[in-house]
Amino acid sequence: MSSVPENIDTLVDEAVFATDSQLREKSRRTIRELAAAQGIFPASIQGLYEAAGQGHYGGITVPAINIRGITYQVARAVFRAAQRDSVGAFIFEIARSETGYTGQRPDEYTVAILAAAIKGGFCGPVFIQGDHFQVSRSKYGAEPEKELNAVEELVREAVSADFLNIDIDASTLVDLDQSTIEEQQAINGRVTADMTNLVRSLEPKGVTISVGGEIGEIGKGNSTVEDLRGFMAGYLSRLGSEVKGISKISVQTGTAHGGVVLPDGTIAKVKLDFKTLEDLSRLAREEFGMGGAVQHGASTLPDEAFDMFPRTGTLEVHLATGFQNLIYDSPFFPGELLNDINRHLSGKYADERKEGETEEQFRYKTRKKAFGDFKKEMWHLPAENLREIREMLEKRFSLLFHKLNVTQTKALVDKYVANSSSG
């Protein structure tokens, strides 16, 4: 294990919070250089997913972890849990919406992850992903070209920041009023193909970025085998035979992002359709050569549900709100700060309160935005509080790594993931 630079905590703080842009950029460059010297490199998971599609391994579900706040600290907990059980197959990701309300642009997110890897003495590929680079249905309906340009600009920004895994979500454009499934999925397929072509044009030399598509909007009706075939027919015809297509497909099987909140603030139990997930994963592999299907909105599911993902051949599962809840609900999250946050939410986001919504439901729904509004305060919690929160998160990550069967996957990743970086 390499010795950890003594100033890494200072460097990452400067990389995120320095008001002097030159100092901020210098600190980010230094972090990237230190990471490269330690054998840490941003990578595409494409090779691993192609191996899954070819049947070279199975029974593993890769966790994709959204970090909304105190990113450096949370990532440190992920790396510690991963190193304990030789986990190589795990992804850090951030969604289009999250880059806004958490105040984290792609380059900042990448350097915070790399700094955590340095701090933890990690070595090897780090998978950083643009999650839900989603086309807004309402904005597309009003000004389609402007909305697509906005997503394209985010893709460019993300790839330049070493996001070598990009999930395009045009499932919002599925038109259920059309008479055939192919027609319903037509715009989704066209936009996803065009975005795939854009990603391919931006790839660093020697790197094939892993691109994901989506056929069912999370929180809506469950996806079907027919949906997948209909989407792929339009997608592949638009993409062309010479361009490498998507490596995975996100589907809807009964979850909702963040879970469904009951009036008392607890999360409703969800009945996940694992049979649909299994069928879609199999179809994705056998007919289209993808790694399999991806499950979103899963972090608030009961623990026993996670054992099912590897058994059903689920390729990847996206996890976000559960970790947010652990941070806010921790006894080590300062009560005074939490009270300040709650008062702030009630004022700033009052217009987002729905009729009949309880205070608990409103806070649960909006508190994700406090990660951006109180970013500096959270990053600079007392060291003891941060340590306790890290340890609590580390236990959770370790549990999920075991349930998703990604322990002892470092050798598997080393076998299928090219040892190259974009630099």
What is the highest CATH level, the class?
Answer: Alpha Beta
CATH 2nd-level architecture: Alpha-Beta Barrel
Biggest sheet strand line-up: 2-3-4-5-6-7-8-9
Give the tally of β-strands. 9
Name the overall outline. globular
Provide the structure class.
alpha/beta
| Largest sheet report | 8 strands, parallel, barrel
Architecture overview:
This protein has 21 helices and nine strands. Helix 1 (8-17) runs antiparallel to helix 6 (106-119), helix 2 (21-37) packs across helix 6 (106-119) and helix 8 packs parallel to helix 10 (186-202). The chain has an eight-stranded parallel beta barrel, surrounded by five helices. The longest helix has 21 residues, at 383-403. The protein has helices at 8-17, 21-37, 46-53, 71-84, 96-101, 106-119, 137-142, 144-160, 181-184, 186-202, 225-239, 274-288, 303-306, 308-311, 321-329, 335-348, 359-366, 370-373, 375-379, 383-403, 410-416, and strands spanning 40-43, 62-66, 91-95, 124-134, 165-169, 210-214, 248-251, 293-295, 316-319. The radius of gyration is 21 Å and the shape is globular. It has one domain: Alpha-Beta Barrel (TIM Barrel), CATH 3.20.20.70. It starts with 7 loop residues before the first helix and ends in a 7-residue tail after the last helix. It has 423 residues and is of the alpha/beta class.
